[in-house]
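Example record

One chain of 65 residues, shown exactly as stored in the release files.
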Amino acid sequence: MAGFNFVMNMRLLQIYRPSALATCALTTPIFGVLASAAITGEALTPTLLLSALMVAAGIGLTTRR
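Predicted structure tokens for this chain:
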């Protein structure tokens, strides 16, 4: 998975600006938690959901104009 992510990131950097891709890269933890819940059936605890919300809020605060 990490290898795929690296190859796709290099390809996308040829097309888009790094600042445009930063938001995508920063959401990786959120999608990782959601994917593990969907694929393996891991429980989404309130702590995980709150943490995901805090990551999303941080991304929003740092990327707003």
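Notes: Residues 2-63 form one domain.
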